[in-house]
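Troubleshooting log. The previous structure file for this entry was overwritten by mistake, so regenerating from the original sequence record. Sequence copied from the archived sheet and checked twice against the printout by T.R.
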Amino acid sequence: MTLDRATTDDVATVSRQLGRPARDVVGIAARCVCGAPTVVSTRPRLADGTPFPTFYYLTHPAATAAVSTLEAEGQMPGLAELLTCETAGQYRAAHESYIADREAVEFVEEIAGISAGGMPERVKCLHALVGHALAAGPGVNPIGDIALARCGWSPEVCECLDYEVST
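Regenerated output below.
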């Protein structure tokens, strides 16, 4: 796992992207080609004590919109059908990788063994899976990789100005 240290400007950008204050940011796990945060890593236990299993959180508005479109089109059942043989093994490995990344920051007993996005058995949240794919890099999360390829958004093409949120 490689996380960029989140600067004050990064946290302010993430807050604008989310439309609310960013909470308990550990670092920036992926960035747009322009350098803007795309995936934030969140502390596994929030400051208020709440366990938070979603370590990789997709924040980039263009990416979030593109992945929301996939979900609205009903693509999750088709992606779930891909969880056979080799893909299922890769997906289980992605689940274990996700947990290891989160536990490298902090072990939280209440969420031990739980990752995100339905891993390792289901395809539940494409936002979480694409966030993990962007943070971990190609080849780690097969369903996240496929969803990223299908969504029509790329971190290599900056769309930040198209989705600027005013403060």
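The chain has a mean pLDDT of 94. Archived copy saved in two places this time.
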